[in-house]
Amino acid sequence: MEKASHLLRNGLAESTRTAYTAAWANYERYTSKHGHQAIPVTFPVLANWIAEQVEFNKPETVKQYTAALRNVHIEKGISIDVFNDPRISRIFRGALRIHGSKPVRKRTEITKDILLATIATFDSTTFDDLNLHTAFCVAFAAFLRPSEFTWESWNPNTSPLTRVSQQSVEFTKDGVLLNLPKSKTDQYREGTTIPLSPASDSSCPVRALKTC
Q1: What's 56's domain CATH number?
Q2: Model pTM score
């Protein structure tokens, strides 16, 4: 059963599990404050929790929070019927009518000029700034998502299987081959190799990798 539990846990991406954990903690605080039992999730408690949450968060966000609660039921082998109750869907429609759907904040692209202005602020004599300079240049050249080149903790045995590290870099006569072990679009670790070419300015990912 231990092996099955390990596979069950890894059925979710690490980033998704982190978000779900935060949402569940939010729900537990609510149930504790109002003297409710947290699990199993019941319709009255879930409905009132949603009604409170949509006063402070977008209905779309609260719907994602609800998915986190559903996940707890799945992992504990508890019925998920409460989450399929048609009244829950109607509550969310009511929230959209009353509170509206807030517009998505526009994010402009990071251009080469912005990158050059950013890395110009780094101190080339400090280890941390050298790492930041390299991370910015490589991420820009390889079109990486933040989760593909950053992490909060490192396990020398397992992290290289999913995270970019020194082992992921292969220097060639034409530049660098960056071996991406895993990405958001490659959940099953097939791996992706991204060629990086030299550049003539300070944003050169090849020179940054050699310096770092």
Answers
A1: 1.10.150.130
A2: 0.59
